[in-house]
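sanity check this fold:
=====
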Amino acid sequence: MTSPMYTNSVPVFKQMLTALKTIIAKADAHCAAKSIEPGALLQARLYPDMFPLLKQVQIAADFARGISARLAGVEIPALEGKEQSFPDLDVLLSKTLTFLDDLDSAAFEGSESKEIVLRPGTPKEKKLSGQAYLSNYGLPQFFFHVTTAYAILRHNGLEIGKRDYMGAY
């Protein structure tokens, strides 16, 4: 039997990141078709104090890797975060999906009670059980950044809808 911690994390991340990968490809094609400078979309924000699209995608991928690695007890892959284009984001999402594909579901056994420490050694340090980390922190953070990336592109005229956001399930 597969761990519920695996079932409630990795397949969800894979579904949403695969959908985001498709949306990013559509955004790239949209820029080419409409003669829009890709940087206009990559640096677009919903509000001036929010991160731009580029950073939203990077953070979503970071959360998918980080959450999964912590729960599985493996090292988080170090990626530089220097993406500057739609093809760069595609590579980032591909690397993240490959990492997720390579995780062993058995490594998630018992992770619901594993202690996860956020911001260790700082005044903001917080200790959570694996279950609370996934349900109350990790998944909401991940979905926030995926949804914001979607909203930025939709707001800027990309013709996408809920089916694009959800991907195949």
Remarks:
- The chain has a mean pLDDT of 96.
